[in-house]
């Protein structure tokens, strides 16, 4: 991961872990049931969203590691880019993504 982006993310991850531990110690299994339910609803929403708006399966079906570990970093970078973080990097990534999308559509048309 890009070191500055990782350093900015670290307090959020540590705070989330601490808050999750607090919720579990305070509310016991109820907190875990809520967390599990929210995860299930989120995964369903992801499948529906990908199917309806993109017309293809989410990355989860291609690569589980990528879906579970790299996708959250993708979202983090999208947040940082929207705040003006490293515009040169965003420009390069946008160009690469456009090229991959074009290749996907060309392959799909065949």
TrEMBL record:
Record-annotated membrane-spanning stretches: 64-85
Pfam families documented for this protein: Mpo1-like (PF06127)
Cytoplasm listed as a keyword: no
Listed InterPro entries: Mpo1-like
UniProt KW keywords: Membrane, Transmembrane, Transmembrane helix
Top-level taxon: Eukaryota
GO CC, any one term: endoplasmic reticulum
GO biological process, one term: sphingoid catabolic process
PANTHER family: 2-HYDROXY-PALMITIC ACID DIOXYGENASE MPO1, DUF962 DOMAIN PROTEIN (AFU_ORTHOLOGUE AFUA_8G05310)
Name this protein carries in UniProt: DUF962-domain-containing protein
Organism (species): Periconia macrospinosa
């Amino acid at each position: 991961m890009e070191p500055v982006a990782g350093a900015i993310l670290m307090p959020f991850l540590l705070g989330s872990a601490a808050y999750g531990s607090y919720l579990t110690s305070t509310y016991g299994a109820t907190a875990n049931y809520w967390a599990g339910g929210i995860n299930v609803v989120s995964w369903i929403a992801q499948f529906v969203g990908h199917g309806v708006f993109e017309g293809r399966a989410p990355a989860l079906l291609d690569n589980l590691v990528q879906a579970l570990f790299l996708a959250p970093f993708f979202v983090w970078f999208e947040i940082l880019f929207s705040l003006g973080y490293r515009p040169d990097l965003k420009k390069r990534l946008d160009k690469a993504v456009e090229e991959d999308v074009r290749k996907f559509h060309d392959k799909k048309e065949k």
